[in-house]
């Protein structure tokens, strides 16, 4: 809205001056003028409170808020100016030149001959700029908005000192009265408000009330509306509330103040009298004075502005419309169109319209506002066509552009909320527009971006009209000639500036357009209308190019060219437009990369052919001087719409290692038919996976190869490279003519099992001036891929990604055999396994093996190679490892059809375990040493304990006599030999062992080894002999072995308990030839040998003479050093008859034993008889001794049973009774 | 003589935001198109912003408003864009020149401005023509808006073009949708 005085277009709010708080340099009206000065001798308040007040008032200043009712509510109702104690009010009346300069009331329009004073801004005052026939001066609004306050708030300190209070109050009274009188004298009706801030230490006293009443009475202030008192020690919240109270209390007064002013104007308007000039027009000036209609325009304007001060927008609209109508229809009609007053009036018409628009926007009449905007334009157009210089001038277009910008700025200033939920760029019409009424689309109010863009369109039209100015009018000399009066220069320059002659400075139309567009782009960007932004950016860049501002154009176009939606969405026209523009800008700015990229894209035949263009990519940089170094450009295919389209296809989706696979690179050119063929220096195809990159090099053009279709088989050679990335290279003709389809077919050997995917092809071009790389990545497309045959027939391949191949490993033809693998392995057995590798390949193979043994506590594995002649069994190489993995054991060359063997041995394992043995044979054929082939084999080995056993430990009667007290055995203690003098005891260890094996095992030997004794005892075990060749133990069977253990204490006096630790060793082997003998050692629970307590052992023997007779013998041993007496009772039984002691007492001397024999004749045969109830009781301890059975006897709960042999066997079993 | 609205351009935009068809019509009084073909295609492309914004707004507000989008925006005082979206994502855009036709006869239904829903008939006719195009077994919709979301070919059917021309030329404000 530049061009209009700011005061003319700014929004008006009530004006308030706050004094007494801060030393301010703001004195109001210019002090030089003769004016009314408000002064005061009371010092400023300067403490924390005053700062708080200052801040609060500044926060509430509504001078800069957006123009809408939402912002101007609550506390932001005033424009607030903070001043010191002094303030100057502008003079209300101009000073009269007449000698008797008496101030008089201007309202007093009595037709008295004496001159009357008028406002200095009135057209009646000779010093005024409006004198004698101007309409209104923006200073007038400025005066009310910035200089004459509606309310003058004066802050004073209210003293607390009782001694000073009277003096102080008197000062206050004088000061307030002074200010009042100054204001009254000035003629303004400014309200004076006094705010008293009581000092901190004031006490509550009735005096305060009296003092306040006194001041009020003396100054005539109204206690409710013009005298405010802040009690002492108020909190910040209270202070804020105080300020808000002041504002809300005085606001109605201020409104009343502006209403008074309105009334004053209305009265004058209604009077309908043209006021007389305050002085006669000076000699030499026109006697033109304002007509009564013009005075009405003036009054209407004032009425509207005061209504705006009161925020009564409807009233303001009414006044403005009335003034506007009179202005255009009556006042301007009679003005000469060449006069400056006509320009002023036109400006005022615009201001009327702007103010009306703002009031409409304020009220939410958006469609109404657009209509008003249009109607002002249309009315003015008609008027200018009729009265002015016509509307086919650049001046009119300049105004149209201005008018659109005014609307845009007004909408922005009003902060209208467009971003509602409907996400629409325009607002719906207000409610009072009838539904179904015909609305022009533009009447829906669009956001400012559209208005700025409209402005730019008018700027463009303005330029077109400006450029049509004939040359003779463009010279500054003709500037003031009458000829130039034909041009409308309302708010725009003269023709010689508008379109200057070459070499002269003037208007830069492009810059104006760019400015408007930039503002529009910001608005569109805010609302995410990115395509609209692109469109405007193109125009803006074109204008920059026009100004030869290459860098700016480049800055816009380069990102646009890369990111624009048009390319992705297939809008080729805009793409082309941007492309050519960018090329133009880049060529001039020396941006070689952009030039080459654009040239590459523009070769596509989809764009419009330009006959004068060379269409040769190699000439892209010809004629561009500003490039320093040789540019190197990389173009990604997704960034451009490329005319070269490469696809890569494998013939099959799967292949095996060692096989040959066919693949094709097809390059289709859709270049402009008239373009020069493009020659690439090389094409590099990159793969993902193990495949080597392929490089195709240009080998020179081939004349026969220029048809529409060419099919080239390319032989690839392996090129090892220093950098460790071997490549395959080939040669072909890499010239691509427009419209040509070229297919390069490759044969390559698949080497390694993996997934292979062709990822990209890079076309490299080396030109005279630059290097170019065009990178095309292969992406799977929805359309089926094509396989081209040499006859240009096509085959469609329907695969997910035809540029991918799955390379399967070569099926190995190597057999791994485990020889001698047992079904079950046992602990304590060394594991030996022979593994044969049979080469079924047609070619000799070189192999190595890796062996893993997996499980807990893996034993070391050793491998040894068995030389081919099995007989010798000589180990050529062996390897052993402590680790789980035994890797890379070389087997060497295995001839085709032959085999090699390896022996694997694992040492015996003590505990049961489960192992997994896996093996990988890696080999390659001597014909192709690069392709490894793998074969794996695995087996499981479970290792279990072959035997488990349980044990029975029972006493036997030792046959040796006990030592006698009466025999003195003189031992020769001289030697080293230890003589055992203790009692000898004999025991029987019965072991029942169970076979857990799942096959027959041969037990060759069983042995009990004494591994430790405890308690001074000597002991040895006798062994039961097994038959020669051992015993075959079948699975899940129980065998029994008995061992006799003799023990003897070292000393006869040692009566302590002794223990024995023995183990059972089973020597066994598998029931096969040449099987090794293994020893399994089973632990036996600790055996307890006691020798201090008396014990009773029962034994049985069968008489040789009397076949029916059974000798039942009870041996009582007394190993103690006491005399013991035992009671013996033998109970009779129905099952046998017996002879012997029925009941008796036996006395045993220390260290002696005694046997009692009973002869039993059983009544049944071939059966266990019993229980034999023989009770032996220690007389002294009254304790029944338990009878321990020995061989041939059985014991259970009831007692001891004795075997009565059947009659036949009786004779054979002869066992002599062995008595003492 | 009065200037009433006429159609300045009809556009069919594919699912991938690609142009499928553009017909341009001359405006009075010069009887030439108001803008260049490039400007019209920029103009059509710009409507996609509003289609996108409205669709998001519709999804957000759960309003299943498919079909008539009404006024998309007015470019300036003469040109305004109206839009319609089919349920397969094809968009029809009618660019109306508010003063594109001069009439002298007394049977003037319209006048300045447009009434709401006045473009419905145009869109209905365009949709009918498009459906007829789809019924042609040689028309492959996927070629024109490939599923990958990038570009697509234009409609080349002469019949469809003629149909569009007829719709654009015959439309008058005030013709009520049948």
TrEMBL record, chain A:
Name of a matching Pfam family: Foie-gras_1
The organism's place on the tree of life at top rank: Eukaryota
Residue intervals of the Gryzun putative trafficking through Golgi domain: 633-1205
InterPro entries assigned to the protein according to its UniProt record, in alphabetical order: Gryzun, TPC11
Residue span, Trafficking protein particle complex subunit domain: 341-604
Region named Disordered: 98-124
Protein name: Gryzun, putative trafficking through golgi-domain-containing protein
Organism: Calycina marina
Automatic annotation (TrEMBL), chain B:
GO CC, any one term: cytoplasm
Pfam families: Sedlin_N
Biological process, per Gene Ontology: endoplasmic reticulum to Golgi vesicle-mediated transport
Coiled coil regions in record: none
Name recorded for this polypeptide: Longin-like domain-containing protein
């Amino acid at each position: 809205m530049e061009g209009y005085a700011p005061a003319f277009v700014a929004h008006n709010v009530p004006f308030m001056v706050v004094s007494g708080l801060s030393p301010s340099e703001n004195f109001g009206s210019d002090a030089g003028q003769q004016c009314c000065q408000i002064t005061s001798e009371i010092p400023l308040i300067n403490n924390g409170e005053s700062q708080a007040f200052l801040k609060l008032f500044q926060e509430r200043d509504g001078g800069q808020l957006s123009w809408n009712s939402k912002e101007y509510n609550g506390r932001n109702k005033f424009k607030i100016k903070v001043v010191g104690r002094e303030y100057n009010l502008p003079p209300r009346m101009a000073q009269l030149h007449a000698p008797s300069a008496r101030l008089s009331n201007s309202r007093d329009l009595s037709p008295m001959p004496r001159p009357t004073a008028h406002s200095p801004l009135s057209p009646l005052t000779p010093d005024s700029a409006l004198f004698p026939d101007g309409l209104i001066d923006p200073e007038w609004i400025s005066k009310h908005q910035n200089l004459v306050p509606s309310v003058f708030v004066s802050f004073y300190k209210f003293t607390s000192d009782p001694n000073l209070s009277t003096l102080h109050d008197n000062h206050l009274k004088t000061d307030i009265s002074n200010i009042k009188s100054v204001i009254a004298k000035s003629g303004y009706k400014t309200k004076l408000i006094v705010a008293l801030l009581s000092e901190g230490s004031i006490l509550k006293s009735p005096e305060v009330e009296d003092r306040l009443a006194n001041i009020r009475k003396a100054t005539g202030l109204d206690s409710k509306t013009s005298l405010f008192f802040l009690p002492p020690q108020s909190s910040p919240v209270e202070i804020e509330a105080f300020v808000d109270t002041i504002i809300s209390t005085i606001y109605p007064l201020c409104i009343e103040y502006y209403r008074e002013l309105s009334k004053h104007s209305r009265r004058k308007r209604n009077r309908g009298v043209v006021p007389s000039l305050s002085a006669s027009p000076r000699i030499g000036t026109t006697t033109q004075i304002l007509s009564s209609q013009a005075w009405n325009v003036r009054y209407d304007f004032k009425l509207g502005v005061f209504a705006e001060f009161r925020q009564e927008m409807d009233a303001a609209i009414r006044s403005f419309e009335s003034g506007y109508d009179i202005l255009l229809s009556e006042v301007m009609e009679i003005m000469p169109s060449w006069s400056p007053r006509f320009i002023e009036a036109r400006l005022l018409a615009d201001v009327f319209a702007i103010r009306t628009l703002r009031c409409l926007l304020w009220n939410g009449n958006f469609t109404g506002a657009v209509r008003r905007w249009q109607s002002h334009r249309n009315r003015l157009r008609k008027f200018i066509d009729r009265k002015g210089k016509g509307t086919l001038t650049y001046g009119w277009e300049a105004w149209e552009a201005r008018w659109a910008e005014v609307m845009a700025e007004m909408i922005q200033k009003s902060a209208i909320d467009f971003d509602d939920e409907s996400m629409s760029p325009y607002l719906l019409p207000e409610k009072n527009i009838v539904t179904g009424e015909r609305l022009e689309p533009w009447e829906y109010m669009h956001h400012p971006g559209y208005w700025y863009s409209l402005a730019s369109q008018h700027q463009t039209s303005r330029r077109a009209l400006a450029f049509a100015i004939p040359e003779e009018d463009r010279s500054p000399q003709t500037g003031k000639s009458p000829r130039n009066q034909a041009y409308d220069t309302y708010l725009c320059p003269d023709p010689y500036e508008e379109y200057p002659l070459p070499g002269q400075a003037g208007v830069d139309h492009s810059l104006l357009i760019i400015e408007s567009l930039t503002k529009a782009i910001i608005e569109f960007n805010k609302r995410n209308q990115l395509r609209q932004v692109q469109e405007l950016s193109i125009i803006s860049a074109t204008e920059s190019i026009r100004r030869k501002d290459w860098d700016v154009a480049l800055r816009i176009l380069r990102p646009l060219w890369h990111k624009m939606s048009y390319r992705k969405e297939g809008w080729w026209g805009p793409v082309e437009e941007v492309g050519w523009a960018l090329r133009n800008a880049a060529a001039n700015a020396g941006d070689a990369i952009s030039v080459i990229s654009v040239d590459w894209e523009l070769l596509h035949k989809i764009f419009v052919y330009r006959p004068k263009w060379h269409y040769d990519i190699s000439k892209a940089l010809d004629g561009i001087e500003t490039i320093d170094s040789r540019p190197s450009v990389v173009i990604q295919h997704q960034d451009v719409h490329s005319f070269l389209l490469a696809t890569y296809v494998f013939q099959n989706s799967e292949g095996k290692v060692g096989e040959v696979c066919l693949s094709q690179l097809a390059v289709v050119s859709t270049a402009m038919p008239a373009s020069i063929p493009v020659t690439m220096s090389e094409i590099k195809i990159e793969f993902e996976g193990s495949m080597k990159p392929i490089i195709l090099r240009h080998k020179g053009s081939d004349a026969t190869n220029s048809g529409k279709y060419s099919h080239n088989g390319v032989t690839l050679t392996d090129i090892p490279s220093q950098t460790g990335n071997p490549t395959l290279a080939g040669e072909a003709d890499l010239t691509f003519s427009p419209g040509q389809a070229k297919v390069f077919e490759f044969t390559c050997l698949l080497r390694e099992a993996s997934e292979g995917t062709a990822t990209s092809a890079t076309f490299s071009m080396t030109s005279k001036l630059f290097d170019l790389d065009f990178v095309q990545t292969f992406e799977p497309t929805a359309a089926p891929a094509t396989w081209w045959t040499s006859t240009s027939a096509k085959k469609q391949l329907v695969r997910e990604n035809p540029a991918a191949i799955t390379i399967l490993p070569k099926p190995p033809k190597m057999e791994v055999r485990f020889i001698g693998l047992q079904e079950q392995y046992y602990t304590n057995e060394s594991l030996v396994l022979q593994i044969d590798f049979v080469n079924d390949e047609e070619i000799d193979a070189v192999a190595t093996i890796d062996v893993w043994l997996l499980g807990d506590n893996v034993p070391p594995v050793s491998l040894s190679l068995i030389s081919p002649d099995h007989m010798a069994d000589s180990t050529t190489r062996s390897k052993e490892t402590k680790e789980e993995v035994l890797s890379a054991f070389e087997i060497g060359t295995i001839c085709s059809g032959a085999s090699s063997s390896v022996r694997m041995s694992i040492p015996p394992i003590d505990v049961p375990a489960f192992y997994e043995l896996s093996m990988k044979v890696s080999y390659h054929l001597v014909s192709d040493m690069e392709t490894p082939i793998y074969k794996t084999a695995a087996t499981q080995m479970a290792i279990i304990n072959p035997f488990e056993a349980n044990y029975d430990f029972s006493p036997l009667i030792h046959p040796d006599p006990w030592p006698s007290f009466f025999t003195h055995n003189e031992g020769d203690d001289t030697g080293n030999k230890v003589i055992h003098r203790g009692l000898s005891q004999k025991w029987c260890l019965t072991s029942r062992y169970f076979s857990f094996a799942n096959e027959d095992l041969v037990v060759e030997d069983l042995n009990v080894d004494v591994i430790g004794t405890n308690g001074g005892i000597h002991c040895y075990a006798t062994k039961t002999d097994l038959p020669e060749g051992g015993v075959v133990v079948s699975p899940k069977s129980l065998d029994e072995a008995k061992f006799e253990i003799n023990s003897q204490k070292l000393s006869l006096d040692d009566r302590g308990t002794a223990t024995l630790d023995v183990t059972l060793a089973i020597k066994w082997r598998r029931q096969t030839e040449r099987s090794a003998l293994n020893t399994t050692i089973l632990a036996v629970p600790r055996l307890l040998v006691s020798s201090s307590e008396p014990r009773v052992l029962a034994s049985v023997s069968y008489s040789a003479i009397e076949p029916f007779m059974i000798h039942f013998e009870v041996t009582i041993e007394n190993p103690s050093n006491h005399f013991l007496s035992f009671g013996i009772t033998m109970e009779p039984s129905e099952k046998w008859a017996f002879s012997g002691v029925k009941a008796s007492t036996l006395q045993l001397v220390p260290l002696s034993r005694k046997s009692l024999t009973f002869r039993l004749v059983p009544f049944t045969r071939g059966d266990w008889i019993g229980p034999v109830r023989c009770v032996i009781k220690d007389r002294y301890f009254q304790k029944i001794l338990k009878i321990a059975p020995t061989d041939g006897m059985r014991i259970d709960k009831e007692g001891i049973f004795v075997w009565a042999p059947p009659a036949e066997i009786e004779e054979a079993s002869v066992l002599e009774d062995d008595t003492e | 003589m009065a200037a009433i609205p006429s159609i300045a351009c009809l556009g069919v935009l594919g699912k991938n935001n690609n142009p499928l068809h553009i017909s341009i019509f001359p405006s009075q009084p010069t009887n030439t198109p108001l803008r260049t073909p490039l400007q019209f295609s920029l103009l059509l492309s710009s409507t996609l912003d509003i289609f996108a914004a409205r669709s998001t707004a519709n999804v957000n507000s759960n309003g299943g408003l498919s079909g008539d989008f009404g006024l998309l925006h007015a470019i300036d005082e003469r040109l305004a864009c109206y839009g319609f979206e089919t349920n397969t994502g094809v968009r029809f855009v009618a660019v109306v020149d508010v003063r594109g036709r001069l009439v002298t006869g007394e049977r003037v239904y319209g006048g300045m401005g447009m009434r709401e829903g006045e473009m419905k008939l145009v869109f209905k006719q365009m949709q009918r023509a498009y459906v007829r195009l789809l019924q042609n077994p040689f028309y492959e919709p996927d070629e024109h808006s490939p599923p990958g979301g990038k570009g697509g070919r234009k409609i080349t059917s002469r019949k469809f073009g003629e149909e569009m021309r007829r719709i654009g030329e015959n439309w008058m404000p005030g013709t009520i949708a049948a």
